Amino acid sequence: MVIDTINNTYYLELKGLAKASVIEDNIEVLKIKMRILFFKSYMYPLKRMAIKKSKKTKVLKPKKERFINSKNLKRVLRVIKSFNIKKFYLNLDTGDYTANAKLYPVFSFLNFYKATNCNVNFVGENNVQLIIQNRPVRIIKSFINL
């Protein structure tokens, strides 16, 4: 997954199999380009869908209550931990000089101890670069190793 506001690049990719990119469009605000193997298609998620009225009345079934148990929560956390952050860059301006001044020592502490790349500026630039990588083997491994 790549989120890059500097180059306006946003996509999710499975190498060689599929890729979903968010693209700016002149007609619609947002367009998603999907490539699966050799096929390309475009989706417009913000386009209004036609609401069809059906003449048949549906019988409502009682909804099942879903509880979050600890086993499912552990699985979700293990899958999240299987992701690796390859690159993280943050250049932030809150628009308030005092808030920027308060964030400056926090970001310098993060840069020194966690080796991140977080910056505060006073010129109005807001940029984020985030590259997250995962392999299917690590996801499967997180399900198997309970």
Q: Tell how many strands the DSSP assignment holds.
A: 8
* Number of DSSP helical runs: 3
Strand order of the largest sheet: 5-4-3-2-1-8-6-7
Question: Ranges with pLDDT <50 over ≥5 residues?
Answer: none
Structural class: alpha+beta
Termini separation (Å)? Answer: 26 Å
Largest sheet: 8 strands, mixed
Instruction: Estimate the mean pLDDT confidence.
Output: 82
Helix content: 25-40%
- The proportion of residues in beta strands is 25-35%
In N-to-C order, the SSE pattern is EEEEEHEHEEH
Shape: extended
Describe what this molecule looks like in 3D:
This protein has 146 residues and is an alpha+beta fold. It has helices at residues 70-81, 97-113, 136-144; strands at 2-4, 9-14, 18-24, 30-36, 39-43, 84-92, 118-120, 127-133. Strands 5-4-3-2-1-8-6-7 form an 8-stranded mixed β-sheet. The longest helix has 17 residues, at 97-113. The radius of gyration is 22 Å and the shape is extended. It starts with a strand and ends with a helix. The mean pLDDT is 82.
Can you give me a brief rundown of this structure?
Helices cover 26% and strands 32% of the residues.
